[in-house]
Amino acid sequence: xxxxxxxxxxxxxxxxxxxxxxxxxxxxxxxxxxxxxxxxxxxxxxxxxxxxxxxxxxxxxxxxxxxxxxxxxxxxxxxxxxxxxxxxxxxxxxxxxxxxxxxxxxxxxxxxxxxxxxxxxxxxxxxxx
Length: 129
Hints:
- There is one protein chain.
- This protein is of the alpha+beta class.
- The chain is 50% helix and 18% strand.
- The chain has helices at 22-37, 42-47, 49-59, 70-91, 93-102; strands spanning 4-8, 14-19, 60-61, 64-65, 112-115, 118-121.
- Strand 3 and strand 4 (64-65) form a beta hairpin.
């Protein structure tokens, strides 16, 4: 972790000295957790450990502080949460497809489908019920 930035001239005089306290990063992390989880508690850290890691990854990567603006961090985490929810909706697509096939009212269920040189044998769909 970077604790200080020191720049000296050729004569040994300090031209820039900036010291960082780890407390500031810890405070930012806790405040960001509180904003993302709305009154964060220990159970949030246990049951949503992946979100906690994502929040920390938005702030620090490779022992370097990337972002200290809490609003930017929360914006990125919200976008990631929306993306995860949309992908989770896609996970249920196969079950919805089977349900749609079961609910289709065909006068006769085709047993073989021929497309050019390809022949597909259709299983008995009544076994899915």
